[in-house]
Amino acid sequence: MSDIQKLTIGKALNLGLRRAMEEDPKVLIMGEDVGKLGGVFRITDGLQKDFGEQRVLDTPLAESGIIGTAVGLAVRGFRPVCEIQFEGFIFPGFDQISSQLAKLHYRTQGKIKMPVVIRVPFGGGIGAVEHHSESPESLFAHIPGLKVVSISNAVDAYWGIQQAIKSDDPVLFFEPKRLYHSGALRAEIDVTGTPVSCFSSQVVREGTTATVVAYGPSVKVALDAAAAAEDDGKSLEVIDLRTLSPLDLGPVFESVRKTGRLIALSEAPSESSLTSELAARVQQECFYSLEAPVLRVTGFDTPYPPAKLEEHYLPDLDRVLHAVDRSLAW
Fold this sequence. Notes:
Largest sheet: 7 strands, mixed
Structural class: alpha/beta
CATH architecture of the largest domain: 3-Layer(aba) Sandwich
Radius of gyration: 20 Å
Number of domains: 2
Order of helices and strands: EHEHEHEHHEHEHEEEEHEEHEHEHH
Strand content: 15-25%
Distance between the termini: 54 Å
Number of strands: 14
Shape: globular
Strand order of the largest sheet: 3-2-4-5-7-6-12
CATH class of the largest domain: Alpha Beta
């Protein structure tokens, strides 16, 4: 019997975590304020009350300790889900992630698995202070041994977090914090239905004029731009990458061979980024199909600005449409 619920991204994550904990007693949640408070974004709200303090653990303010403890728990057969409260706090744990978490499965020739999920609220748009609006996903996508995923909608939030927890490899799970509680992004989900695969790229809007590839919070921007472009007679195909490492670029190549144009969209700075990789790979695989150079619409190569300036920093609908116009004028 189906159980269809209309959920925000935040509520979908909460229910996905709850379902994973119900199905497997080895699933633990740990992080700063995830228990009694339910997390600063309330994603883990109610879980400690229902599953107890032995399975939903409030930790000290020590990201290296959180990740290091998760590594030890994984060795002992548990499936820890760590929350990094804000993405800018992840760097004290970078050594544990890159030197231990990403390497142990390979180093032991598969004898030790690392089923650890690190949930990372990321991106801007919430008017926060320094270190609370970063986009560090490219740093982790560069590290072999890690799966890196970024969701953009409630369906992928619900099923994706469960699939990440079931993975025997470590997964960094980037969540667009400014969209957690957006009523406009509520989606109907059959929470008892057949799981939706979330670790591959997906065409979320078909088109023929140009391809726009995005992930995380930028997918909504791309879809808004596509809707606006339609009024001018332009048909934009929008692709949600979903998985950032390993990249699933087959749908991107197929789309670019059809449209001849690519706009790569991301909040992160442009230099040495995922949009750089997209541009390089599409040029390599689709060179003779391109009608214009690959163009990128990104954040600027500066530290994230104070809240009063973030609307000028974040890529918006107008910047995407301007890039489309530049591509068509080539």
